[in-house]
Structures are given as C-alpha cells and as structure tokens.
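User: Hi! Is it possible to get a structure for several chains at once, not just one? Here's what I have:
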Amino acid sequence: MSVAEFYHGKRVVITGGVGFIGSNLALRLVDLGAEVMLIDSMLPAYGATLENIAPVRDRVQLNFSDVRDSHSLSYLVQEREVIFSLAGQISHSESMRDPMTDLEINCRSQLSLLECCRHNNPNVRVVFASTRQLYGRPRYLPVDEKHPLEPVDVNGINNLAAEMYYTLYHQVYGIPTVSLRLTNTYGPRMEVRNDKKGFSGIFIRNALEGKKIRIFGSGEQRRDFNFVDDVVEALLLAGAAPELDGEVFNLGHPTPRSLLEFVQALRQSIPVEYELVPFPAEAQAIDIGDYYGDFQKFHKASGWSPRVDLEQGLARTVEYYRAHGWPGS
Amino acid sequence: MSVAEFYHGKRVVITGGVGFIGSNLALRLVDLGAEVMLIDSMLPAYGATLENIAPVRDRVQLNFSDVRDSHSLSYLVQEREVIFSLAGQISHSESMRDPMTDLEINCRSQLSLLECCRHNNPNVRVVFASTRQLYGRPRYLPVDEKHPLEPVDVNGINNLAAEMYYTLYHQVYGIPTVSLRLTNTYGPRMEVRNDKKGFSGIFIRNALEGKKIRIFGSGEQRRDFNFVDDVVEALLLAGAAPELDGEVFNLGHPTPRSLLEFVQALRQSIPVEYELVPFPAEAQAIDIGDYYGDFQKFHKASGWSPRVDLEQGLARTVEYYRAHGWPGS
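Assistant: Yes, the chains can be modeled jointly so their relative placement is included. Here is the combined structure:
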C-alpha cells in the first residue's frame, strides 16, 4: 500500500504539531486526506507559531495542551490510529541550563504518552522522532545504528531514555512503535528566532537580515542536512509500515557538508557574509565534532532516501521566509 | 591513603541510608570514624527499617526525607565531602507496573541531586550505585563495561539515564562522580519481606520460614552474587579514589552460580526444600537469562575483589536473621 492510500481517512495525531517538523507533516497529511489532530503547548521559544499551520487551520483539529499533562493526553490518544510523537525540548544548551524541564518534556512525557497508549489505545501506531544526539561524539563515520550510545548532554540522555521506552513498550506490550533518529533538519517553518536551536536556523535568519554569520571553530565540522520534506516522507513511511515495528533507524544524507559548505550553498540563494569565531566554552563542552549518519538500514527497510539536496532545500527555505517574513521581521 | 584513613572524620551522606546496602555502609563508616548523615524516605516496601541501623542509631544524623524533594536535598548536600547515592526503586516488576514512580525516583531525583551538587557543592565526591540491569540480556559472558546497553525494563532504562547524568556532570562540570554497576547483592539487612526485590531475599525468607522455595524455569540461570560487605568495600574504595572520577565499573564475582547452586549453598546453613515452576509471563518478558559480570576493570583500578564466597555469605545472612528475626517473623 502506498503512503497516500495508507493515510487517506486515517485518524492521526501529532504532538508538537504546530512546531517546525510537526506543521510540515500536518500540511502533508491534510493533503493526503488524513483526519489530523495537532497537540501543541505553544511554549514560547519552542518553535510553534500558528502561522506554520495557516494553510490548513480549518482542516485540522487543534488541541492546545502540554504533553506533560498526562490526564489530557489519556483522552487525546483514544481512537487515534497513528501518533507522531514530535513534541520536545530540542535545544542542547538549554538542556544544560535547565535540565529538569528537559527531563519532564523529553523523558517523563514520552513514558507518560506510552502509558496512555498502553491503558487506552494499545494498538495505535507510534512514530517517535528521536535524534542523532544520543550517539554523542562519533567514534567512526558514517554513524550507523550499532554505534555506541554516549550522549554528551542532558538532552541526548533524555532522548535516549525516551527512545528506549518506545522500543520496550513494543517488546513487552506489543504497542507498534518505531523511532527515527533525526539529524540536522532544515526548511520552511524552522525556528529562526531562537539562537539555541542549532546553527542552521541562526545562519538563515542572519542571512535574511543581512547580518554577518558567525561560525564557531574552523567551519570544517561536517553534518548531514535533511530537508524537512524528506523528513516528513520518512515519518510517513515509518508510520505506515508494520514491518518496522520495534525498530530504530537513522536518517541522514548521502552528501555530508561542512558548515562552510553550508554557507556556500546558502549563498546561492541569498548574499551571505561570515566570520570564524572561537567556540564559546559552554558550546565546546557539548559539541560533537563531525557527524554524519548511515541511513542504509532505513533505506533497505522502507526505500527512503533524501530527494532534496542542500542547494535546492536552502533555496526553498529562503523563498519561504521571503514570502512569509519571519518572526521579528 | 587507606580507606580507613580517608573516611576518618569525613562528612559523608548516604541516600537510602536506612535500606539494605545503605545501612551496611553506614555501620562500616561509623566504625571508620566518619561523620555520617543518612537520608531516607522510609517508603513502605522499599527496604528501610530502623532495625537496620540500630547499632549506630545514636552515632549518625538521620534525616527523613525523599530524594524527590529537591528543596530539602539542596540543603542536605551542603558541606558534605562524599555522597553515596543509593536511594532507588529497585524492583524490576514494580517499574513495569508503575513506571512513572520509577522514573521520578531513579531518573529525575538523580538529575536533581546532581543539580543540587552543581549549585551548592560542586566539589563533593559522589558514588552512584548503578546496576547490571542496564545491559539487558547478555550478548556474551562475562559482561564487561563495553557490552551494549540494552535494558529490558523501565527500571534498567531509568538507571541508565541516571548513570549517564553522573558521567556527564563529571565531564561538563568536573563534579567528581563514579558509578558502580551492582549485580545480585545479598546479606544481612536485605529486604526479605517483599517478593519484588529479586529471588535471593525471597529464597532466604522461605528457608527461614520453612516454606518451599519456588524457582522459575530450570534453575540453571546463572548469576554472580556479591555479599554486602564486599559491595560496601567497593563503594568505600570508589568514594576514596579521585583517579576513578567519571568512570563506570562493574562489580561481580569470580564464581557465578546457578539458582540451583544458590539453593544448595543455602542448604549448608538451613534446611531448604524447593520446586521448579514455569516462568510467569510477566517475569518472563523482562527476564535476562544468564548474567555474570567481568569486574577486572574495577579490580585493576582499585584492587577490589570479592572476599566472601556464597556459602560463607549465606551462612552469615542466615545467622543474622536467626539472631534478629525478620520483618513479619
């Protein structure tokens, strides 16, 4: 069955549905004819803005609530067929400044969501947006799923625990869960206000505002960048394929790029100036150096590969923000 | 410096200090001339009983409080030189029945303790009692510290996250932490009331009460058993050796024994009858099969090896309960 057929008429819920990836997924699911509910706490600085879902605002059910609120969650998961668990605190530096909040959202709420499913809807398929952050500093490249799990910040540890809950609840209770370890995702609706959500959003905002981009270190650190439409496709595939149940998969891109190359690619769409500056101590302590993932396991299981290259993806991102403006613009 | 010299006059705090291992550690530390504070929530069925610390009751400072209470904890860690973090929910089956409580105690409270140290006493040495449970089902034996971490229950996942917080707070903030992965610990003051704290306590209680011991499965599952005095010695060594900071070590025993052999060893001290019964489904789902650990890393780093064999240890355990009675006796 194709993804389009699978989701047509499906009752789907997305936690963090008004945020960056959640809203892109929502738009696509509405397009496929799914019955979509979005759960979002609208926490300031977490990336949600109603502008993100403007094109589908009247075709989704929007439920403002926080995944930390397990009583609401118990009702929200009922009668749903697929849950995309995307709500999260994603800033690494913020997880060090306020680790207890990171734990509540990334660790406790995930276990709580699974408990809600176990008690109220044990057959619902659940796709968890995990992160490459749980590998820590790569011991080899590209990083595959067998790589040791050695997270270097609180965010990585909490996501690791969360991912393990998802796998466990499949093993012990048979709840159909699957986790995708996302890497650097970028694209329209990404958080560009907040300095704590990774460099790509900041770089793009600075370019849009004609400000100089500051690159920490030599700029030679490599990353694999996934355009959000490719990530949405991966999430849809994961949610539609029972043969992936209980598994964990890397996403990734076949062409890793350095930060300098990222800036060069961005320059094809918009004028960019940059400077190299030394790493601030705080960022250095939790930096992971080069990272790029091996996504062959997911490719073999689902046929997925990224379709959008960095130049195209950045062009579409810049186009989006030029058309819609950006928060603060 | 010897352990005895190191702890003489040291200001030490033990969380879970009235429980099984905590109380044995407390007795030894008082004996070494340390200034000992015990923190315990006295949660029913968690193993704490004042009988455990009767011999030193007037030579320790006893603070009744729960590690989930971070405001109290902030004060309790101040001016201490060594913290033994032993408070925990240790029942695997209970962690599946009530996973949120397991998370609060084993995961959230550990992060909270570290935050208290970071803000109020960043030079305090912290020894964390971790568990072999975070390895899951062994892929090879004996299990060393490089073995993949694949916990098979919520308790194992939460302990894994906790241990990673300890290592991280050393790496990022320089707090001197060290984790020991305990295996099956037994001895005087162990919890013998509660069916959920592992089989050794239940076996010993049944023997004391003249009841038949029920062994799940074939009885051939092997484990490594550490007598509590050996575990106390390991904790003391870990707390006294700055060169172990930031590290994680297995405990273990050079002679693993099957459950049937455990019963044979127990029979040398007390008459025992037993029967083999099939695994209940709940226990089977989270059973890890054979487990024994390689403790060479800790042996090389600290000189530690277990001194007490199973026959001696069980004899001393039975002797203790015969002299003191046991809860419910």
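DSSP finds twelve helices and 13 strands in chain B. Chain B touches chain A through 26 residues (CB under 8 Å).

User: Great, thank you!
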